[in-house]
Specification:
The protein is an alpha+beta fold. The chain contains ten helices and twelve strands. The chain has a seven-stranded mixed sheet with strand order 6-7-8-9-10-12-11, sandwiched between helices. A five-stranded mixed sheet has the order 1-2-5-4-3, sandwiched between helices. A hairpin with an 8-residue loop joins strand 3 and strand 4. Helix 5 packs antiparallel against helix 6, helix 6 crosses helix 9 and helix 7 packs across helix 8. The mean pLDDT is 96.
């Protein structure tokens, strides 16, 4: 029997089903797994979809993934190899009434990892597009209830258009996530708006690195937490080590002005810091690019920063703009700018 195509309203149960399957996949791939993502329509709140959990995995070695074929079969998957896409491993579960799909790519296959993640972020961030996409799928499902090829072809033009736009907008942010994964899969960038339980720990961390009262940081972090998601500043981020009790190993902020007298040059990146044992690996650049990527998504055109460092920011596509006098002193520091 052909697959019966049914498009349904979003179900909170999708999150639970993803997490259950995620644990099974982690258990099979172990150290070969770099990262795992819930993708596709069931990963997007309030999007109509077929009730199929799509999971994307980046792995260090696809050959080692192939060695785990029998273990995937034991938990109910068909192991279909590349399945018409070079460099992918495709697995599915549920027979004609499919319930899960796994798409496994090499950790170095940034294009395929990027396009799936960028498409998801774009749909999440655009309510009108989300609604349009859901309606397209619903109409196609009614028109082609047992014809998956026609159903898929009917979505193709819409998906291709959104995919191209999403890659352009979200590339810098997602590239940073994928690059961090390559450096160390235990590292994770978090927004303090999304993880407010870190706020006290974060304020003390920044205070210890920059010799500014933790209460000042805490006030700014709380403002970020309280603000609308699209407010440009303040914004605060941490880099944590998931495998070491969520140890803070770095941080960065965005504020209106970083204590200099060139008030028109705003907003400013500030407080970028990486713990010494994690330096010289490209981590600071990833963290900086991630934040610039978020600001680009929000529509900001330029970002500034004040520094006494030489050479580092040039490598991150910032350009020296001018010297600026620091507040409360007769010293000057360099201001850099980046076009987003």
């Amino acid at each position: 029997m052909s697959q019966h195509i049914v498009v349904k309203e979003y179900n909170e149960e999708y999150k639970k089903r993803y997490k259950e399957e995620k644990e099974k996949i982690i258990n099979i791939l172990k150290d070969n797994l770099v990262n795992i993502f819930h993708i596709g329509s069931t990963s997007i709140i309030d999007l109509k979809s077929k009730p199929i959990i799509d999971i994307m995995v980046s792995a260090s070695s696809l050959d080692d993934v192939d060695l785990k074929k029998d273990e995937f079969i034991k938990i109910g998957y068909e192991y279909l190899g590349e399945f018409n896409m070079k460099g992918r491993r495709y697995l599915r579960k549920g027979g004609d009434e499919r319930t899960h799909q796994i798409h496994i790519f090499s950790k170095n296959d940034k294009y395929n990892l990027l396009r799936h993640l960028a498409f998801k972020e774009y749909i999440k961030d655009h309510e009108d597009i989300k609604k349009e996409y859901g309606n397209i799928k619903e109409k196609l499902a009614k028109k082609f209830p047992y014809d998956i090829e026609s159903y898929s072809l009917g979505k193709e033009e819409f998906i291709k258009k959104i995919e191209e736009e999403s890659i352009e907008i979200y590339k810098e942010k997602i590239d940073s996530i994928l690059s961090i994964n390559l450096i160390d899969s235990s590292l994770k960038i978090i927004s303090l708006k999304d993880e407010p339980t870190f706020k006290e720990k974060a304020s003390k961390y920044f205070s210890s690195k920059w010799n500014i009262s933790s209460s000042i940081y805490l006030k700014s972090i709380q403002e970020f937490i309280n603000n609308d998601e699209k407010t440009i500043y303040p914004r605060w981020y941490l880099l944590i080590n998931k495998k070491n009790n969520n140890e803070i190993i770095g941080g960065i902020g965005v504020i209106k002005n970083d204590f200099h007298l060139e008030k028109r040059l705003s907003p400013n990146i500030c407080a970028l810091y990486i713990n010494e044992s994690y330096r010289n690996k490209g981590i600071a650049k990833c963290l900086l690019n991630y934040v610039c990527g978020e600001l680009k998504i929000l529509g900001l055109k330029k970002i500034y920063l004040l520094t006494d460092l030489d050479n580092f920011y040039e490598k991150c596509n910032f350009k020296f703009l001018k010297f600026a006098k620091n507040e409360d002193s007769n010293t000057f520091s360099k201001i850099y700018v980046k076009e987003l």
